[in-house]
Amino acid sequence: MNLSSVVPWGRNLDEYQRMFALTERDLKAEIIGVGDGPASFNAELSVRGGRVRSVDPIYKFSRREIAHRIGDITPVMREELEKNKENYYWSDFYNVEQLVTCRTSAMSLFLEDYDQGLRDGRYLEGLLPALPVSNQYDLALCSHLLFLYEATFNLEFHICSLLELCRVATEVRVYPLVNQVGQKSRFLDPSVQRLNESGYQCDLVAVDYCFQRNAHEMLVIRRK
User: pTM value?
Assistant: First the structure.
């Protein structure tokens, strides 16, 4: 993977709690975050004593390299957000600048924690649909990867990735369930059907978070 093809854009612990409806009990579980990128979720939860590991291909790069890429992409993201304001709900953020400030703050926390997190094994290089971990987690979280980029990843990738998440965790939560233009992903229903056929219970659950238009539900998967 070339770092120049990556768009690092991190979310914080509060956003994770709302995106995935995480309770205090959930936060005490053993959690794996897949595709976390430069989110501060791991850093913030670890300080609170949480047991969390993040898996992402970006973790093959050094702190300096990731920081440089964040610096390059932030003005690009700011410009894109300004161009596409109508695709988002602005109830949590007053304007684009406040959102960018929130994102850069989360990514700064990640960068401060990154080297120690690597040493602790909390940041692990890896990517779907084949994760370099064994079946040991209570909860797997996948944020802004599956379903969102349906033009990049095909149906088989989604199904294989969801089954892989089910392999490594007792419960899986995926958010959002819409594509980049805010429409329900065309891969959602066939993925759910395949998971049901494979012995899993799938539920669409409303969450108290909606920045991207129509992104107000998560997918929860458990073994039947």
Answer: 0.96
